[in-house]
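Long-time lurker. I teach an intro course on protein structure, and each term I like to show students one example going from raw sequence to a predicted 3D structure in token notation. This year I'd like something fresh instead of my usual example. Would anyone be willing to generate the tokens for the chain below so I can use it in lecture? Attribution to the forum is fine with me.
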Amino acid sequence: MDERKERKLNTTFSFLRFRSIFIKEFIQIRRDPPSLAIAIAMPLMMLLLFGYAVNTDIDHLPTVVWDQDNSEASRDLVQSFANTQYFDIDWIVYSGDEIQALIDDGKAKTGIVIPPDYSSKLDRHETTSVQLLIDGTDPNAARIALSNAQLLTQHESLAIQEQLMEKRGLSNIEQPIEILPRVLYNPNMESLIFNIPALIGLIMQNVTAILTAFALVREKERGTMEQLVVTPIRPVELMLGKLLPYVFIGIFSFTIVLVTGVGWFGVPVKGSITLLIALSFLFLITTLAVGMLISTVAKTQLQAMQMSFAFILPSVLLSGFMFPRETMPVFIQWIGGIIPLTYFLEILRGIFLKESTLASLWQETVILSVFAFLICLLATLKFKKKIE
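-- Reply from a regular --
Happy to contribute to a lecture. Here you go:
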């Protein structure tokens, strides 16, 4: 009878037991500040990043102009492009080579070439052609640039026709201004050619960063860190010893995704394969060091996973992988500037699509080298050969 009563008491809900567990869990959460900070900061960070970075409206494209006519009519046309707010006239140049160099370097997304006889042909009521050079590496931006340029020239042509109608009563020009588009690097504006190189960089980053993020944390949770403590191993030796195996794994993963991207999806590498491999190795060292830094900070594998995602999410949104960085606010672009993937995407798309050389990618290479050195140094200094 007593056993039945005791069993009945155990099966009934007890507010005291519930309160004890409830308080205990809050104490546990309070003793784990990193997880609590991530749980509070992550939603706010996601909201801010998505709110500012996720922008599918493409405008303010950096534009270079070569006005060979330099007349009032040609200047009015350039101003009309600027007034649309889709084109930012950032450079006025005096040769085709200067336009090509700015687009090759990724500084300008569009180029406008006005012929020397632009105004004279309009005065003679003849059709004149304006060339539009478009960086086709981002197909979405290229389509929008082409569409808006065509709409603008149609509007300008209609205005000229109306003027002729008022002056002479009729217009014998079907379209006074026509646009001659030339899409560079990706003439067919295929999204696959734009996305596959970026996916290679993103996959490399995510795999290597997550793998190495667990390297030291695993030692702590398994209790094998004590064995390392009593050895004469120095922090830098332990860090390099932990890092090197993942270098080989990263190289293997890179080879797989590169061969698959080129062979299966048919995305050609127009630039140097040797340069691509060398700079990919540099990026690999950088992401592995990021993972190691996370591993030295995190106390548990759960914390390591949370920190890894806190690093991966901004890199996806702010690096230019999904959305053009030119459409983001300046301060968001600054945040994206401290993400290594931002520069590696420029390298990948430059080598894949533009046949870029080290001479045109030296800035991205230097920045990645600085990132690799600083992050490796910080991870080594952060590590303490003791159990905290």
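Some talking points for your students: The chain has a mean pLDDT of 82. The CA atoms of residues 1 and 7 lie 10 Å apart.
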